[in-house]
Each structure stands twice: as structure tokens, then as C-alpha cells.
Amino acid sequence: MTSGHRLAEGGRIDRLKPLAFTFNGRRYGGFAGDTLASALLASGVTLVARSWKYHRPRGVVGAGVEEPNAIVQLESGAFSVPNARATEVSLYEGLTARSVNCWPGPEIDFMALVQLFSGLMPAGFYYKTFMWPRRLWKKYEHYIRKASGLGEAPAVADASTYDKMNAYCDVLVAGAGPAGLAAALAAGRSGARVIVADEQAEFGGSLLSLGSAPLPRIGGRAAGHWLDAALRELRAMPNVRMLPRSTVFGYHDANYLTIAERRHDHLPLGERAGCRERIWRVRARRVVLATGAIERPLVFGNNDRPGIMLASAASTYVNRYGVRLASRAVVFTNNDSAYGSALDLYHAGIEVAAIVDSRRSPGGEVVQKVRDASIEIIGGSVVVDTRGRRHLSAVRVVQMDGERLTGRPRHIECGLLAMSGGWSPVVHLHAQSGARPRFDVARACFVPGEAIQGERSAGACNGTFDLESCMGEGAAAGAQAAALSGFVARATKPPAVEASAPKAQPLQPLWLVPSPRGVSRGPRQFVDFQNDVSASDIALAAREGYRSIEHVKRYTALGFGTDQGKLGNINGMAILARELGQEISATGTTTFRPNYTPVTFGAIAGRDVGELFEPVRTTALHAWHEERGAVFENVGQWKRPRYFPRDGESMHEAVRRECLAARNGVAIMDASTLGKIDIQGPDAATFLDLVYTNAWRKLAAGRCRYGIMLDENGMVMDDGVTTRLAENRYLMTTTTGGAARVLAWMERWLQTEWPNLKVYNTSVTDHYATAAIVGPRSREVLSAVCSDIDLSAAAFPFMSCRQGAVAGAAARVMRISFSGELAYEVNVPANEARHVWDALLAAGAANGITPYGTEAMHVLRAEKGYIIVGQDTDGSVTPADLGMEWLVSKDKDFIGRRSLLRPDTARDDRKQLVGLLSEDPSVVIPEGSQLVDDASASASAPVPMLGHVTSSYESPALGRSIALALVKAGRRRTGEMLLAPLRDGRRIRARIVSPVFLDPEGTRQNA
Amino acid sequence: MRDTVRKESPLIRLRLDASGAATPGDSILVAQERPFLGHLNIRGGRGDARFAATIARVLGMALPIAPNTVVCDRDRVAYWLGPDEWLLVTPAGGDTVIADSLREALRDAFSAVTEVGSGQTVIVLQGRYVRELLSKECPLDLLSPSFGPSACAQTRLAKASVLLRPLEADGMELIVRRSFAEYVWAWLSDAGAEYGFRAGT
């Protein structure tokens, strides 16, 4: 377990809790508190990946969210996670991971041969080479995609569950480093509701990576003690919610932010229970952004070898994880902060061979400390190239005079190069909020611009890099945010910070190290490690005429990938600016979009999966349908019985039996899903006149009428029967799928256009259950359970309504029919539906009462030529197209009326509803079939389309197939033969007939 | 004769599996259906001062005027749903008599009284984490102290509409539409597992 790569002591790891893990098939050990990256480094594994395009060996560069290289596939099967950043993966017992984008592994990678040709693969290589000939691209693409790309999407269902949480707070603090903690304390102490989230497992940010030697003191005590006390205080506040392992990944409109909380990715698989990730949807009055800064790499030749990492990452691995990164190191910097890293390495016993500083004469307090440690400082010099096959072995240092390299190169052997090109504030959330970061020339970084929403940046993300100022800004921002939310924040002086960061000397911007042989001919100087974009690619893009950073991004792939350019983007923009001879502010940044880091699809789906994906609405009789073995179909969100097969029956046989029962005996259907709207008020009739095409004033109480509704374009949008219950009260029925839409539609018109109308609409769809009793024997059955309504044809005629008791339940009985048979619809309160239904079934048993489903209902209505809105209509069909001119009043206004007068809607050759009888009565024309002229059978394609089949069934009553169709000028063509050419080569001939196939006189329903 | 009518509540299938009496607490969250209560939707009062007086006289209680509040009177609760819309929940069977009296008293006023009792049902949740559970898929600020007893809100829970009313002692009442009741119950049971969701009788 012990290896030469772990320091004997120090760090936040628990050496008493060893953990075993597997990487690329080999077993390693680490400790609780390690990340996968720190455990690998402490095991001496520095080659962790192959690069995306050239398959170059790559190692760990960062220590956190910015990591571009150490991307792994975690676990397998149902727990597989593609593209996890090893720097953010907490180590747990039994963890299994492997490198992505290399096979069989990073040490021996067959695709590494690509490196030999890397000089031949400039930016845009794939587009330029393989897009021609176009038809072969699909073939090339398959292999190119296979050779590149990162992790694999899991092939089996995810074993985890996911969740969401809505939350409100006065102050949301994004980031729990020193600035964020100071803000959370200041806001929390005021009593404001605070949420503080941090992506790491532990709160503390940069305080977690402090070394032991130049230890700052905060508020008079060691930084670590201050941190412990701060966390204790926050935990004790009931108004503060602390979310570790939680990334604020989106800043949306109206101070609405989204946070991904990883709840158990740090646990061994066997210990995981409950939801894996939870997305917090936070509405915050004020936001304090304390997201810190990411150190910039330097761009020089072969700057991508394993062993080259950010200076801050080197400090973190040494100080926080106790990793002995190498025995000998070189530091390359253009600023003071890396001197601290040099001291961290030095105090950990790592020999620091030299600090290469691009500044001619670095000076100041921290520099002096380094000198005191007898570390050589090579001023005015740069690292121009590196050596090493699978790991860094030496760097080449050259003096720099302005942009010119001078003098003899010097080789320094080392196993670690810690680099620092300065710091880039994490302005991502600020930019997502709609604000524009601006380039600060003095600090050589993008800093937050003017706030657009209720947010303020504090600390390193605000371009403030010394600890004391960071904490001061944080405390001020937290107090201000609480005050703006209406709380009284006591003016608390931020804790004094002693001896943390001595006054820093200015940084010297160094966006691109001059190359001895020029940017295009020298060794590759990588800008974006994950996408293998080098400085020469950006230069090439500029030469080829690309000017916009957004275009250069898409041409070179700069800033794509799972890290979205967190390391390389700013260098890339600066290099482009230089190529274009403009200021960095003129080049600007690419757009910072959510999500800050990738969020799993599972978390976005949350609980809306499986049975909860969509509400399943059921009627009060659903249990009965299930007991009876119904086969269900989805109608909108409803489950409706489609048919009730008896033992061994096919759907065809069941539907045929159900249809014949309705025509010859008695059948019963659950019609509860139809929309029902109770319309009340003195202007109810006026209102109905406006929403329906036909007239309603003269309908007597106790009578029913069929109506159709049009949209503003004059197209049929819904239909149904409405009953006048009393002088000022109507009960409207709508289609099952249209119920909510029609109610909303009517409310919209009432509230926006006709507020003067005294009408109230109340949905009673769920309150009433409806049983349709259909067939010549239906009167007999109903009379057995209903004694107080005279059911005789004379007393209770077709299209009328009576109230009475059915099986003891207060019922409204409508004599209406969607089948053309004698039929009654019994409406009772849904709580009593099962009782009434059972009674009707019992009463009908002697007559063989047959439950039927929607399929038989469709056949029965089609035999009568009754339409189904949405099946026989499609939003482009007028009443006249359906042959329903008789339903359109000429004496009143109604929605859609004016549109019916438009020349196009008044055309007489529009598609019209007709009946179709196939020449061969046994052939059922498939629904949706296109129809052409019979004569075009011999014509060559294309032939004019005349229309299509909307409904088509075998009709048991007629003993043959029937169909409804929309056909151009169809009614004029009655008697003509059409042709339905099918995909399978069949050509079905069918004759146009009346859409009413059965009982056109209506004798049966009036019986 | 009506007495012989057998009733089934929207959640009858799930109540049958209920685990019996359970005490809500830190690790147990109990859900119960309160079936068969009377529910009346009442509309009216737009520009009609007599409306409120008439209602108060007939019911012996005033309807709430402040938005999103309730008025409780003995075993009846009136919910404000809109400037001219209320829900009155009464003990089982009480709605028919009240509806008839209201319609009679309001016959000359522009109003609507509609029975909706079979169209919705009441679910009562109790337990320490009820509000956190509902916050998962309810976009309102349920942890706000201003959402306490005497408040109500029409909102959504996951993909269903609900009417919420906080009760004393960590309780919450949900009124849901009949056809969505099983979905809501299934959602509560799934999302509530971590809080010890149980069906009570």
C-alpha cells in the first residue's frame, strides 16, 4: 500500500481508512478523503488518458472541475457513468474506473499511431478530407466517430432514481470557499433564508488546499480552525441550508437557479439507497456568486505531457491529499501565485530545481521567501519545449527578450512541471444571468461586468485574489444581499487575515510562449487539451479568414467537450486576438451557457419516468374493466377499454361480437371520459350561440342537441351533445381529448372578449360517470333498474333528458346515441358509478348485455357516418367539408363564422367527407391510405393526390368493409372509382358513396 | 332508497392496502384519504353586494374574501379559489341540502352552485417532512411561514393540479381530481419513500 508517491503525513485524507479500487483493470489503494485522481497520482499512475484526436499520452492537469484529461468511465452496467472527472470523483471502496478514448488502455493504445500523422491533421481536417464525395460521408463518419469521442452511454437501464426539489431563499451563495463562507455567515446571521452550495465534498474551497508552511491565520486563529468554526456556526443556523457536492449549474431568468446535488456517488455501490442526484430549482431573491477562479495553463511546446499540471493543482495534491508528485520539480510562471506552490512542494520535500519566470526581475516578499529556500529563480525566461515519452523527463528553458527568444537553451531534468499563467475568474454564472463579463487589462482576466439580475460576485470570481480581500468582499456581499431581501444585517467586520498572501507583484500576461520554429512548425502548443486544439490551429483559422471567436470555436473545436474550455478558452481567445491584431476585449468570449458542468439525463428526468412518466387517468369503473380482462388504449391521458376479449378471442372477433350485440341486443360502454361542462347563468344560451355554429335559444329545457365548435379559422375543433337542464343551465359534453382545451377556450373568450356575459363554466367531467346502454333491448334493461322515469318513446323521445333514480342513485338519463341505435346515457355521481354499473349489468344479464370498448364504438359510429374530431378531421376541415352545412346558422354570429366566408373556405372543390366501399368487400383499406384517380393506375408518377382514408373498419352489421375519407370535391364524385395504392404494392379500388352506411332514416335510434 | 347505494371513493383500490393506524413522525409520513365529503363549487358575487350576505345567511358562515385563504366553520371549510369562485367542503351528504338551499336563495342572482364531490377527493398528509416532500414537485414556496393554517393554494404537484391547505402540526390537505387521484397517490408513495410514506386508514 505504501508507495514512494505518498507523503508520510499531512493532508485531509484519513490514513486509517485505506480503500481499494480498480483502474484499467489493475488494483490500487488509496485513502478515505482521496479523489480518484489523487489516489492514482499517489499510486504513481500519471498516464491516465489518451487525447481525443491525436491519442497523445495525457495526465492529470487540474485538481477539480477544470480537469480536461482525466476523464473516466466509472463502474459498468446499470451504474455506469460516462465522462466522470477523476479529480471530482470521491474515492470509495471497490470503485472501478477505466480510461476513455483508448484501447486497450492508455499505456498501449492502438490509435496512438495517429500521432505520427498529427502534422497532417490541422483544424477542420475531417471536414476538409471526408466531406467529399458527400455520399461517402456517412461511411467515414461511422469510423471517425468510433475512433474519437469520450465515454460510452450506458447500454442498460439506470439502476438509480433521481429527484427534484423546489426551494426559495433570500440569499443563494454559489461556492463555499472563503468568500462564499463569509457571505453565508453574514447573510445567515441576519436571519435571512440562505442556501449555500459547493461542488466539492467539503466546504472550504481554497482553504482546503493550504499548505502547512505559509499558513495564514484568520480572525486570530489558524485557517483550518476558522473553517471548522464557520461550518459549525452555519450548521447551527436553522435558516441556512448547506448543500455540499452540489453544483450550481444554471442561472436563468428571474433569479431562478438550478443546482445538481450528487447524493451518493461517493458511496460504495452496495450502500447507495434512495435518489442518486437531485436537481434543486431555486428561486433566490439575491445571489452571491463566490465561484472562485481557475488557474490558467501556459501555452508552450509539448505542454501536454503527463507530469505537467497547474501549480495550484500541484499544491492541492501535496497539501490536501499528501501526494508526493515527483522527486524533482520545475515551476513555470508569469505571476507570484506559483511561488506559493513552489514553497508547498519544497516543504513537502520535493526538490524544486528552478522557477522559470517570464518576468525579467521578479521581486517582492514571496519571491524572497523562495530565494531564502535556495530555490533558483530564472527570470525573463520561458519553457519552450518538454521531453519524455510517457511522462515528463525534462524541460527546455530559453531566455526571452520581448517576444524574441535569445541565448542558449538550457535543459532541466524534472518529473513535475507546475505551471501558472494567472487566474481566470469563474464568471460563468454571472454571464449566464445575462451580464457581460469585461476584460480587465490590469489583471489580465475577464471579470464580472454590470449585473443584470440580483447578483453580486465576491472573491476570486470577481478578480480579487488575496484572501483577506476575498473574505471582505464575501462578507459585504452577504450582508448586502440580506439587507436587500429585507433583513437587518449587523455590520460584521470580516475576520482579519494575517500573513496569507504577501502583496503580489503584477502578473505579466503570457498567452503564448514564443516557439523557436514558429507557431506552425514547432512542437504543438496545446491550448485546449481535451479537444487537442493547439495554437497553430487557431492561427490557421485566423489565416483562413475566421474572425468571430464563435466561428473559430466551431472550426477548431476550442472549448467544446465535457470541460467546455474551462482551462483553455481564455488563452485561445487571447491568441486569436493577437492573430487578428486586436484587443482581447474586441475578440470577447464565446457564450457561457448553462450547464456549467454536465448534468445527467436521469437527474433532468427526475421521477417523470416509468409509471409516473405521465398521469394515467382512470374512470370510476376501471377496476371493473380490469377484472373483466379489458384491453386498454390510451386516449389522451385516459386509459379506456378498447375491447373485452373472451377466452381465446382475437381483437377482431371480440369487436365483431360487441358490435353485433349493440345492433341486435344490448351493449354497455363506459363513456365517463367525455368532457362535461356545467354552464350556468342568464346569458348561457347567448354564450352557446357564440361558441357553437348552430342555434341554442329555442332548445327546450330537457332537450339535447348536437353541436360543433369552430376555431377562429372556421375549422372544426370539437363536437358533442349539449343538454338544456333548466332555463339558465346547460350541460355540455366534449370529446375526451378536448375537455380541458374546450373549457380553457371558453374561459378565454368569456374573460377576454365577452366579460359582459353572465355565464359560469364548471368542469364536472370527473364528478359524473357515464354508462351508455345501447341497442334494441336497452329500454328493457334500463326499465328494470329505473322505475321513476317513463321510458316510453312518446314520453322520453330521442334527444331528450330526464332525471330520476337509477338503481337508487340520482341520475340524469340522456336519450342520445353515438351508434344509431336506441340508446341511453346514464350519468351518476362517480362515487356511485360502480353500484349503478353492477345493477345495469345484472339487469341486462338475461338479455346478454355485452360490455364494449372504444373499437366497437368506432365501428358503430362509422356505420352511421358520425365523425370523430381529430380522426376524420385534422384542423383543416370546415362544417361544409363534412356535409354539415345544416348545422351552421345563417342568422347569428359565432366563432369562426367570418372565416367560413373566405374564398378558400367557400370553395366547392375542397376535400369533403365521403364514404368508400372497396370493390372487394373483404378488403379493409388501411387508414391513412392516399387516394388517387382510378385512371392514374397506368399513369407515371407523380399523380395528383385526391385525398386520404380517415376511418376504415370491417362492419359486422353490413357484412363488409366500410371507410370514410376526405376527397377533393368528393360529394360531386359520388359513384366514381378511386384507387388506394399501398406501400406493399397492392392497389385497392374503391367507390365513393354516402358516408351514412346504415339506417340513413334514423329509424333505429328513434325507436 | 338512496341509502342502499354503495359508494366507492377514487382511492378505494389503494386504501385497501393501507397499513392501518400509523403515527406520523420524523420517520413516518402518513397519507389518508378522506372520502365522500361534500364538495360544492360556488360562483358569484361579481358586482353583486347581496351575494355575500345571502351566502352568509344560508350557510351561517362567510366565504373568505382574501385571496388564497380559507374560512373554517365547525366541520365545513370554504376555500377561496378566485375573485368569484369558492369551494365549500362539507361532511358527507351535507352538500345536497346546502346546494338546494343556496340555489333557492340565489335564484335571482347571477351565480352557480355545482356539486363536484364525486369529482375530487381529499388526501391528508401528516409527518415532519410533508412540506419537503411536496416541494419536490410543487413550485410554490411551501416552507414559507406565510403558508400556514388558514391559507390555501391551487397549484400543481408533479403533473396534476392540486388544492393545498396546511393543517396544524405538520399536516397538509390535498384536494385532487378523481381521475388524477391514483397518479398523485403513486407519486406521493414514490417520492415519499425516503420520509417513510405509509397509507393510513
Structural account:
The complex is a heterodimer of chains A (1007) and B (201). By secondary structure, chain A is an alpha+beta fold. Chain A has seven domains: 1-156, Ubiquitin-like (UB roll) (Roll); 161-293 and 425-498, FAD/NAD(P)-binding domain (3-Layer(bba) Sandwich), CATH 3.50.50; 297-421, 3-Layer(bba) Sandwich (FAD/NAD(P)-binding domain), CATH 3.50.50; 510-604, BFD-like [2Fe-2S]-binding domain (Arc Repressor Mutant, subunit A, Orthogonal Bundle); 652-671 and 770-860, Gyrase A, domain 2 (2-Layer Sandwich); 675-763, Aminomethyltransferase beta-barrel domains (Alpha-Beta Plaits, 2-Layer Sandwich), CATH 3.30.70.1400; 908-1007, Elongation Factor Tu (Ef-tu), domain 3, CATH 2.40.30.110. Chain A has 24 helices and 50 strands. Chain B is of the alpha+beta class. Chain B has two domains: 7-35 and 119-199, Probable tRNA modification gtpase trme, domain 1 (Gyrase A, domain 2, 2-Layer Sandwich); 38-117, Alpha-Beta Plaits (2-Layer Sandwich), CATH 3.30.70.1520. Helix content of chain B is 23%, strand content 32%. Chain B contains five helices and eleven strands; from the N terminus they run αββαβββαββαβββαβ. In chain B, the strands form two sheets. In chain B, strands 8-9-10-7-1-11 form a six-stranded mixed β-sheet. A five-stranded antiparallel β-sheet of chain B has the order 3-4-5-2-6, with helices on one face. In chain B, a hairpin with a 2-residue loop joins strand 4 and strand 5. Chain B is globular, with a radius of gyration of 17 Å. The relative contact order of chain B is 0.22. At the A-B interface, strand 8, strand 15, strand 39 and helix 21 of A face strand 2, strand 6 and helix 5 of B.
